[in-house]
Design brief:
The protein folds into 2 domains: about 140 residues, ATPase, nucleotide binding domain (Nucleotidyltransferase, domain 5, 2-Layer Sandwich); about 90 residues, Nucleotidyltransferase, domain 5, CATH 3.30.420. It has 8 helices and 10 strands. A 5-stranded mixed β-sheet has the order 3-2-1-4-5, sandwiched between helices. Strands 8-7-6-9-10 form a 5-stranded mixed β-sheet. Helix 1 packs across helix 2.
Length: about 230
């Protein structure tokens, strides 16, 4: 079964197509917040590169976040629309899980950190188990000090990954037990998403398009601004 992976939770837009033979075509670009104008052409390009048509796709995989609100909404809305139109299931993951997955062979705890802007980050902790990662600390939102405190509480060496780790590199590296992963791992990968989705498809771990919901962890910015204005009135 061919799977189309859509990744738009951070500044990177990624699209991949693959199945049991692995990823056969992919596209990725980091162009700020131009997700809406980039995603559909990216899907069309990736289909051409893979030499497949949309009716040949058997499932759509999508990152539910947390991440940039607009990017998440674009990706999730597109995935749901395509799955509904093609009458195929959706396979989901989170941005934090996808960041940790390339490091499943690590013996250390993996800390995924996504820049949430406004002085906050989204973060979670994982351990590798075979080809998957197991959640050690559930997804949360808070200042980088909360991540530093969580790392110190564990008293162990950790590997941190994600654009939030890059932004707050100095604060994290103040603890000698912390290592920051390379820049190529700053964003969740659509290729990783497709690989995970293929494994989940083998056990039919999918959902219907109607049941797919974003993982926000905090109110969307527009709602925060509206609440702030209402409080001042």
């Amino acid at each position: 079964m061919l799977i189309l992976g859509i990744e738009t939770a951070t500044e990177r837009v990624g699209v991949s197509i693959g199945g049991h033979e692995g990823v056969i075509a992919s596209f990725q670009v980091t162009r700020g917040r131009r997700h809406a104008e980039t995603l559909v052409p990216a899907v069309e390009f990736t289909c051409r590169e893979a030499d497949v048509t949309l009716p040949e796709i058997g499932a759509v995989a999508v990152d539910l976040g947390p991440g940039l609100f607009t990017g998440m909404r674009v990706g999730i809305a597109t995935a749901k629309a395509m799955a509904s139109a093609l009458e195929i299931p959706v396979i989901t993951s989170t941005s934090l899980e996808l960041l940790a997955l390339p490091f499943v062979t690590e013996e250390r705890v993996i800390v995924s950190i996504v820049d949430a802007r406004k002085g906050e980050v989204f973060f979670a902790m994982y351990r590798g188990e075979g080809r998957e990662v197991r959640e050690v600390l559930p997804p949360s939102c808070g200042p980088i000090d909360a991540v530093v405190a969580a790392v110190q509480d564990r008293g162990q060496s950790v590997l941190v990954v994600g654009d939030g780790a890059r932004r707050y590199h100095d604060a994290l590296m103040a603890d000698h037990r912390v290592e920051v992963a390379g820049e190529s791992f700053d964003h969740p990968s659509a290729d990783t998403l497709v690989g995970l989705a293929h494994r989940r498809s083998l056990v039919e771990a999918w959902v219907t398009a109607e049941s797919v919901e974003a993982m926000y962890l905090r109110q969307p910015d527009a709602e925060i601004n509206w609440t702030t204005r209402a409080d001042k009135s």
